[in-house]
């Protein structure tokens, strides 16, 4: 996963540099010292280099997401990625000193790449894997969407003309994809939507292939089921989008 995302990131950055309509980025890496049997942190993300509101918004949003991902005890006062990395390493050291049996090193790998960009919108995808003990680690997939013209981050309610209307539309596609009867509970085939009502995932992002709805493990199904995705081609999604492709 690491090598694939690294090639993708650098390739996309190269394309961006050669296209005047694309925001300029450079790769930015933060990592812990390499050693055997020790906690490892590696962050590889695009860093917007232009001195604009949009670049500052993107960089701040990425930094905020990553700081939150590395915040193990929810008491960290880290204000940048280096401080967040050091806090993660310190948290492991303090815990392992208290509980010697919990000596398996932690790991945090976070990589970002541009999944979509046109003249009005840019989406950055953050993929992370965090292990802080236990039977397995936890992977997340975050999509951050930005309005290039206004220099603002776009949240779910900003993407659609009518959020409720799009939700109903997405539910019909989801039921068809997952072979769920159109009538009856959305959980009738084993999903775990709360209150047995369909809802959109936390993460929705633009990709070159369409609008991607990405449900994290545990969001609507068991961890063993992994992430659940619904890719909606722009030909179908555009009527609902404030920023159609």
UniProtKB/TrEMBL annotation:
Pfam families registered for this protein in UniProt: DUF3298, PdaC
Residue ranges annotated for the DUF3298 domain, each copy included: 162-235
Residue ranges of every copy of the Deacetylase PdaC domain listed in the record: 36-137
UniProt name for this protein: Deacetylase PdaC domain-containing protein
